[in-house]
């Protein structure tokens, strides 16, 4: 039995051996009036996938399929879909699959911050009927149309995938905090998300400062478009050298425990903003000296809204931005490879799983 009764996916079947996922078949969620069925062609590999699969964020659920940077083709539309999608359209789904669409936050383009129990993540979230959502390392996904986005024709599928979670997660704080011409913007942590932060901030017209511990990412950062590179462990007085310089810093590091916020604050102009997008292990705490924060704002940002995802896709299409992506064919072995290499940081700078038509026969 296959689609539409069953979907297939590469799932964590044994949490103790999470790096060796297995191919399974499972029931999709109930088909609702606003749902879109998508036959998946590619899925980006997000740091969240590894956190979830490895139980870093609490015990992984049984037979969990992860993946929330999904690109595929529309194969079926619910009877009440009204956002203009058509069967055959190439579309994407990011990390959010549902929200109430009715609260103050949802109505002001802040769906990621919806507090309702109707907010559901693309995987490991729970729908109102108890169904646990399954992600994009799979043959198909079924998602509410509000969280399905048409991909502009000139963005290759494997490059569109990482925009849908990682990309918009760094784009949203850039957009919301005035990144643009005349602004000096720092990106801390040059990895899967940070490298896209450099690309977007530059495309938005800002002067870009790539900030990392060592100089190992310097060459890549400059190629990506950074105007300056700061190696914090190698340039002793960097916080003094760049004092009173930056208008905005986006923290993209995977861990906050070894970041000296006081040094970052010293580089900020008055009114400057530091926004973190890191979701480290739940046990981590941020240490701050209140006096160091004089005149500077600090906050945490989550994902991006439908409006922001569409804006990002338009920006990437218009400016022909190219995230650095390595493709790996999806299979049990392929997912094992990306999980193990993500753990080692062995990726430049983002994986996209591809060749779904070869792995899934429906
Ligand atoms: Zn809401
Ligand atoms: Zn993600």
Automatic annotation (TrEMBL):
GO terms for biological process: alcohol metabolic process. Pfam families: ADH_N, ADH_zinc_N. CDD domains: CAD1. Coiled coil: none annotated. InterPro entries: ADH-like_C (IPR013149), ADH-like_N (IPR013154), ADH_Zn_CS (IPR002328), CAD-like (IPR047109), ER (IPR020843), GroES-like_sf (IPR011032), NAD(P)-bd_dom_sf (IPR036291). Its cofactor is Zn(2+). Its EC number is 1.1.1.2. Keywords: Metal-binding, NADP, Oxidoreductase, Phosphoprotein, Zinc. It catalyses: a primary alcohol + NADP(+) = an aldehyde + NADPH + H(+). Residues 19-347 form the Enoyl reductase (ER) domain. It is an enzyme of class 1 (oxidoreductase). GO terms for molecular function: alcohol dehydrogenase (NADP+) activity; zinc ion binding. It comes from the Eukaryota. Homodimer. Belongs to the zinc-containing alcohol dehydrogenase family. This is alcohol dehydrogenase (NADP(+)). It comes from Tetrapisispora phaffii (strain ATCC 24235 / CBS 4417 / NBRC 1672 / NRRL Y-8282 / UCD 70-5).
């Amino acid at each position: 039995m296959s689609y539409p009764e069953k979907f297939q996916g590469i799932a964590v079947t044994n949490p103790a051996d999470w790096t060796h996922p297995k191919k399974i078949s499972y029931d999709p969620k109930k088909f609702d009036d606003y749902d879109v069925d998508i036959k998946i062609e590619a899925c980006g590999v997000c740091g969240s996938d590894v956190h979830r699969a490895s139980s870093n964020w609490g015990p992984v659920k049984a037979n969990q399929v992860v993946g929330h940077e999904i690109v595929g083709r529309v194969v079926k539309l619910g009877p009440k879909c009204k956002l203009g999608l058509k069967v055959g359209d190439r579309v994407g789904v990011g990390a959010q699959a549902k929200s109430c669409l009715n609260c103050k936050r949802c109505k002001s383009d802040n769906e990621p911050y919806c507090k309702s129990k109707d907010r559901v993540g693309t995987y490991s979230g729970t729908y109102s009927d108890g169904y646990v959502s399954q992600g994009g390392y799979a043959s198909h996904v079924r998602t509410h149309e509000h969280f399905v986005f048409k991909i502009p024709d000139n963005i290759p599928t494997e490059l569109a995938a990482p925009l849908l979670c990682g990309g918009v997660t760094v784009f949203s704080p850039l957009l919301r905090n005035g990144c643009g011409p005349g602004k000096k913007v720092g990106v801390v942590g040059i990895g899967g998300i940070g490298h896209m932060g450099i690309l977007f901030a530059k495309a938005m017209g800002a002067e870009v400062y790539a900030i990392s511990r060592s100089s190992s990412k310097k060459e890549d950062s400059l190629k990506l478009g950074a105007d300056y590179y700061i190696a914090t462990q190698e340039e002793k007085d960097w916080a003094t050298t760049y004092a009173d310089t930056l208008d905005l810093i986006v923290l993209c590091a995977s861990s906050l425990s070894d970041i000296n916020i006081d040094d970052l604050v010293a580089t900020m102009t008055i009114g400057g903003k530091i926004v973190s997008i890191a979701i480290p292990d739940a046990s981590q705490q941020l240490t701050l000296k209140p006096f160091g924060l004089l005149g500077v704002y600090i906050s945490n940002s989550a994902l991006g809204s439908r409006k922001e995802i569409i804006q990002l896709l338009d920006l990437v299409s218009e400016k022909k931005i190219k995230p650095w992506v390595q493709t790996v064919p999806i299979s049990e072995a392929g997912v094992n490879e990306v999980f193990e290499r993500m753990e080692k940081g062995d990726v430049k700078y983002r994986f996209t799983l591809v060749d779904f038509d070869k792995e899934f026969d429906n």
